[in-house]
Amino acid sequence: MLDLLQFDNRYLRALPADAEQGSRRRQVARACYSRVQPTAVAKPQLVAYSSEVAELIGLDEADCVSARFAEVFTGNALLPGMDPVATCYGGHQFGNWAGQLGDGRAINLGEVRNGRGEHWTLQLKGAGPTPYSRSADGLAVLRSSVREFLCSEAMHYLGVPTTRALSLTLTGEQVIRDMFYDGNPQPEPGAVVCRVARSFTRFGHFEILAARGELDLLQQFTDHTVAADFPRLHPAERTLGADDYVALFAEVCSATAEMIVGWMRVGFVHGVMNTDNMSILGQTIDYGPYGWLDDFDFGWTPNTTDAAGRRYCYGNQPGIAQWNLAQLARALVALIGDSKPLEDLLAGFASQYQARWEAMMADKLGLRAVAEGDADLFARLTDVLQLAETDMTIFFQLLAHVDPQMETDAMVATIRDAYYTPDDLTEDQLAGMGGWLTDYAGRLRHDASTLQQRADTMARANPVYVLRNYLAQLAIDAAEEGDFSKIHELAALLENPYEEQAGKERFSAKRPDWARSRAGCSMLSCSS
Ligand code: AMP
Ligand code: MG
Questions:
Q1: Domain ranges, ordered by start, for the chain
Q2: The model's pTM
Q3: Within 312-420, where are the H helices?
Q4: pLDDT digits (tens, 9 = 90+) for 312-366
C-alpha cells in the first residue's frame, strides 16, 4: 500500500521554487523552497514506528515493517508523487536576528492526502545536507532521534499540540558528533525520524521574506498559509485583505497560548524557543535539548547552551512566546499597513495566557471553575513548590488524595513523598506547604464539585507518566547497544499517560540520584 499513497503537494504548487537544485550551500532569494534529494545511506533499519500516525496517513502494520518502508523513510527511495524539498526560513536565535536558517537537516517528502481528505506533510529529519545546512552535515544521531520520536508522540497523548513522528530508523552509518562542543568528537549511530504534521510552517518563514523586503512573496506565502493551514479563515470568493491577516495573527496568538499552557501543565521545557522553532499552528516543534521538570523550578532549563542566560527556562516560556509573536507581528505588519491591531493582540496575549493558565491550574487542583482569589492561590502554590525540591508530577498525583477534612499535618503527610529529601525539610518549608494546603482545603470546601468530579478533573489534568529525562536516556543507552525494547516499552506506556498501569510503577518514580547531573538526563546541548 505504500506505493498507493496519494500525494498532493500544495505547498510546491502555490509557492515559488529556487531555480537551483541540489545541496550547494547558498542564500536563496525570491523562493520559498529548494528541491533536494535525501542522501542514500548504507543500511536502513526500522527501530520504531507509531501505528496511530501510520493509520493517519493510510498505512497499516504490514506496510510499516516492510523493507521498503525503511528504505523510504530513511531517504533511500521515493514513492510516486513525492517531490523532496527543503524550505527557506529565517529566525531570531536567543533574541538576535540570525538571517537565513532554513531546513538544514529536514527534507519534506510531500503532502499525503489521506482517505478523509486531510493533508499531512511528511518530513525526514537527518536525511542529509540541503542548501540550508550552512557548515553542518544535515544528519542526526540515534540519541537525538530517539528523543524526538518518543517525546513528540508522548506530547500528543498528553494532549499538548505537537508535530507527530511516524518512524525512527537507523541509517547504518556513523555520524561524528562533539556532544558538548568540548573537543571530544565521537562516532555515533546515524538515524532519521520521519515527522508528520499538517504543515511545518514556522514564524521564521514569514520573517525571512519580510526581512528581505520580498513583500509579494510574503503575501503569497501568507495567503497559502491561510488557505492550507487555516481554512476556517479563508473567505470563499475574494482575495485576502488586512483584516484576514489580522485574524490569522489572532489565531496564532490563541494557538500559541494554548500550547504554552500545555507545556506548563505537564512540566515541559522546550529549551530552544527561537522563532524558527515556533510553529504557525501552535504545535510543539523541533525536539532538541528539551527536558521535563522533575522538581518544580521556574528557573530550570535542560539546555547547556542557555545555562548562563536561562532565556528559555520553564518559567520564561510564556513571556518568550509573546516576544516571538512580536517578531511574527513585525513581519506581518507589512501586509496590514497599520500596526495597531497587531499591537492590541500582542498586548492581549498576556491576559489571554493568564486566563488559560488559571483555568488549567483550576483543573490541576480539581476545582470546578476559577473563582475570586484563585489566581493568588495558584501563584502561591508555585512559590511553595519551589521552597524545597518537590517532584511536580508526583505532587499533583498525591494532591488528589488530600481530603479537605484532614488536619494540616495529615495533608502534609499525604504529599510528603513528592519531596526529594523529605527528612531534611525545615520548619519554614513545612509551614509553607501546610499553610497552602490549609487554604486549598478551605477552597475545596467551597467548591461545587463532588468528590468524584474533583478526582476526574485532576486525573485528566495531571499525568501519572511523563517522559522523564533519565527514562529517555536509559532507552537511548539500550538502543545504542542494539536493544530497542526500552523505546517500545516507553512509547507504549506513554500512549496512556493519565492511567496507572500495572507493573509500571518504576516509570512514575522520582528521578534517581545518579540522574541528577548525568549528561543527557539534565544537560543537553543545542544541535545534535
Ligand atoms: P535548531 O537549533 O536545531 O532549531 O537548528 C537551527 C538551524 O540549524 C536550523 O536551520 C537547522 O536546520 C540547522 N541545523 C541544526 N542541526 C543541523 C545539522 N546537523 N545539519 C544541518 N543543519 C542543521
Ligand atoms: Mg530548528
A1: 2-200, 204-362, 363-461, 469-515
A2: 0.98
A3: 317-336, 340-364, 374-384, 392-399, 408-415
A4: 999 999 999 999 999 999 999 999 999 999 999 999 999 999 999 999 999 999 9
